[in-house]
Amino acid sequence: MQLRRLNASLMMLWICLAMAVSSIITTFMTQDMLVDGVAISISIITIIGIVFSGALVLTEQIIKTCNS
Questions:
Q1: What are phi and psi of 24, to 5 degrees?
Q2: Considering the entire predicted model, what is its pTM?
């Protein structure tokens, strides 16, 4: 089996997705308003990161397909 090289943008997509899920879970589990505000802010920032990482992965796949 051929080992694939880790794609940095795909790895960043999964890291941002994990951060967004964990911050959303933190929002629902805590009762402190300050922690909730920080968790919501982090989840918004990571969702923006997910969108950009997903767009980068899609762009790389399109370029790879067009070049072959």
A1: -70, -40
A2: 0.70
Residues 6+ apart with CB under 8 A from 7: 57, 60
| Rounded Cα gap, residues 13 and 54, in angstroms | 6
Cα 18 to Cα 33: distance, rounded to the nearest angstrom: 22
Length, in residues, of the chain: 68
CA dist 68 and 41 (Å) reads 41
Q: Within 13 Å and on the Cβ side, how many CA atoms surround 8?
A: 0
Q: Write out the H or E segment, with its range, that includes residue 6.
A: none
How far is it, in rounded angstroms, from Cα 18 to Cα 8? 15
Read off the pLDDT of residues 34-58 as tens digits, 9 standing for 90 and up: 888 888 888 888 888 888 888 888 8
Position 43, amino acid:
S
Q: What amino acid occupies position 66?
A: C
